[in-house]
What we know:
The chain is mainly α. The chain has helices at 2-16, 19-24, 27-57, 62-85, 92-120, 125-148.
Amino acid sequence: MLFWGHMINNIYTVLNKNKFLARFLTPELIGQAIRYLITGFSSAAIEFSLLFLCKDIFSLSVVVSNTIALTIVFWFNYFMNRKWSFKSTTSLKKQLPMYLVLFIFNLGASDVIMYLLTSRLSLYYLLAKVFAIAAVMSWNFFLYRKVIYK
């Protein structure tokens, strides 16, 4: 824990030298972003493994494999972000429905990205997954921070 605190403070010190960035970036925000990225990379590793398993071992379509992988990772990602990344204490009854709506949107967006990149542009499905994850992660941090885990 000491390592992460020291690293966050170093990042904050460097970024704080820029007056524009200093107004927006706080140690709390940087800590949340780092924890979010760690959770995201962990989720991505699980997703890639499940996607590969479903697509290459069970010979399912890319979209079906992606849907299965994302659905399984749903709970891991929700609880890691809730308890660790954002340290939220908001009621599950209030939070979970919002997370579910965002999950459904993310699932649709991810499936569309995967379909377009693999079927229309002939991109290798695991590379397409990188683009899908990057897109979803880019808007999720702000929605998690400001709406779901506030």
